[in-house]
Specification:
Helix content: 40-55%
Oligomer: single chain
Mean pLDDT: 87
Distance between the termini: 57 Å
Number of helices: 12
Number of strands: 11
Order of helices and strands: HEHEHHEHEEHHHHHEEEHHEEE
């Protein structure tokens, strides 16, 4: 069977998402997320290849250039898979669902997200970026596709079993928070509802009492200490992300007199504001630091990062009076108003990491230019 005999086509040209339209000229016969895609998967007995990303994602661009614009790879995808493209910023529900599956399968996540599904939507294999040929412990993308097709043809029971196990792992991943919410609200388990993959409970928690609130904060701060980098701030190993919700939690605990929380928050806020993840010329924060020291950024800038970090640095200034943090707030707001805000007050969601086909070219300066 060849892709030409299947009457396939790329269906992304009329989509509203800029990310999906970036892939409208790919030789891959992309579907948007739709019932039609899964109906075709069922009728043709082919698995779904789900690719999730966003318009400013550098490695999404890389995988597109290496694989999705490659005619050989595209023809193989078209012959053996139903290919679905999702913009994570347009469909955060789909992104969250399959990110849970990717985290359960690999222990890590990111974009582009590459997930392989049964026709009913259950995942049986997941990963992120795959290079065109094997390197750094990752299989080559075409080699991976061939292996998955062989398994689909000859080991369908094993694939079904893997999908069942992965679905159960995702349910367990979400069951602990749901159980905790039920315990706080004293609602019976039968009052919850969720979809087939997540099993996410929907309940309305009552506000905890003051003592319980302090205990929850203390428990959270204690858990964060095991991940905290006391020398350079931040949590976990490289790459390091500017995790505003965590920093806000620490500042909240510090407002109740927790000195350890204050130290973790201030060390991290100082390190980010003085490092390369912050744009000292134009204002605003890059997506993450590729190293432990916050020096070398991944250059894209996201609106939601600016919004959350403005609030965090404002809270930090209110708590400590540190004027340099207020400067970060003012410069970041200025960046959003100057660069991300378009005609009519529209605010764009991101600034790409790439310019002129190179990552970070816009932000990298020679000494004579500086």
């Amino acid at each position: 069977m060849t892709s030409a005999t299947q009457g396939g086509e790329n269906r992304l040209a009329r989509e509203s998402s800029p990310y999906l339209r970036q892939h409208a000229e790919n030789p891959v016969h992309w579907y948007p997320w739709s019932p039609e895609a899964f109906a075709t998967s069922r009728s043709s007995d082919r698995p779904v290849f789900l690719s999730i990303g966003y318009s400013a994602c550098h490695w999404c661009h890389v995988m597109a250039h290496e694989s999705f614009e490659n005619v050989t790879v595209a023809n193989y995808l078209n012959d053996h898979f139903i290919c679905v493209k999702v913009d994570r910023e347009q469909r955060p529900d789909v992104d969250s669902l399959y990110m849970d599956a990717t985290l359960a399968f690999t222990g890590s996540g990111g974009w582009p997200m590459s997930v392989f599904l049964l026709p009913d939507g259950r995942p049986f294999y997941a990963g992120t970026y795959f290079p065109p040929s094997a390197r750094h412990g990752l299989p080559g993308f075409l080699d991976l596709l061939r292996a998955l097709v062989a398994a689909w043809d000859d080991q369908r029971e094993e694939i079904e079993s893997q999908a069942k196990a992965l679905t159960e792992a995702v349910k367990q991943r979400n069951s602990a928070p749901a159980a905790a919410r039920r315990e706080r609200t004293r609602e019976p388990a039968s009052s919850t509802r969720g979809d087939s993959l997540r099993g996410t409970a929907v309940v309305e928690p009552s506000a905890p009492k003051k003592g319980a609130r302090h205990a929850l904060l203390a428990h959270a701060v204690e858990a964060l200490q095991s991940l905290y980098d006391p020398d350079l701030g931040g949590f976990g190993r490289a790459p390091k992300f500017p995790q505003a919700p965590i920093l806000d939690l620490l500042l909240t605990s510090a407002a109740f007199g927790d000195r350890q929380a204050l130290e973790m928050a201030t060390t991290t806020l100082d390190a980010m504001a003085s490092g390369g993840i912050y744009d000292h010329l134009g204002g605003g924060f890059h997506r993450y630091s590729t190293d432990r020291t916050w020096t070398v950024p991944h250059f894209e800038k996201m609106l939601y990062d600016q919004a959350s970090l403005v609030r965090t640095y404002l809270h930090g200034w209110q708590l400590t009076g540190r004027e340099e943090w207020l400067q970060v707030v003012e410069e970041t707001v200025s960046y959003v108003r100057r660069t991300l805000t378009g005609p009519g007050g529209r605010v764009n969601g991101a600034q790409d990491a790439d310019s002129e086909g190179r990552e970070g070219l816009y932000y990298v300066w020679r000494s004579d230019e500086i």
